[in-house]
Amino acid sequence: MKKPRGIFIAGNWKMNHGVKETRQFFEQFRRLYDSSSSHLQARLADHSLKAALFAPYLSISAAQGEAHGMPIHIGAQNAHWEKSGAFTGEISGAMLLEHGIKSVLVGHSERRQYFAETDETVRKKTESLIEQGLEVILCIGETRAEREAGQTEAVLLRQLSAVFQSAQSPAVRSLGCGLVLAYEPVWAIGTGLTASPEQAEEAHQIIRRFLSEKLSPEAAEMTVILYGGSVTPQNVTALLQCPNVDGGLVGGASLKPESYIALLHGAVELLPHP
Ligand code: PEP
Question: Where are the domains positioned within the chain?
């Protein structure tokens, strides 16, 4: 099957896995990786399949050390837009870069819901972190009430417009390289309720159409758009078969090595054997 942008499987560990559990995860993951198919190892090595785990800050060093020699990227779950200053409890993009971290989640619905992040703070983070050279995985998505009120498209367009304010914005310039979008319907996150492939594809088409109309068809074509919301090894293939779904942002099913590698196996089967 043709996946012109490859496939990206990103695991969001949220506030799970301290240092000890991180080591245990990778000890088992390495065994599974070493005995996995040559197709999986080759597609990870040539980056047509990209794998990343977004670990809690304190577990990042352990994850980087343990993942050494395997093509698994380690990312962070959040960062402030300022490079330094009086922002107690925050971590800057500059600090992540100094630590060898090149990817960061921005605007996850749990950050919007529990930590008062707004479209405006999400825009500031996206622009600043991209300007600093980080890859940003920008999360957007509607709540259950918004979907039931028929507002899914309006919510997605509002969240996108907040970030892509002008053709000169850093977000626009980095489409296709430093910016990945993640459609995460809030009602599907951690609930076991997955969007159907049709619902996911419809939302991804809305996002790609926005990028095409607001920016350019080329930018829209290049942009990786992930689906997130109760992705499991059982449903990953059906979701990835949607033409506009380029990967998954996965919470619960990324916490266990056997289920994370099962997601990678499900994904790689959709990529051609050379
Ligand atoms: C997430 O953390 O972004 C997520 C989609 O979680 P889950 O896969 O557990 O629904």
Answer: 7-38+50-57+72-80+90-258
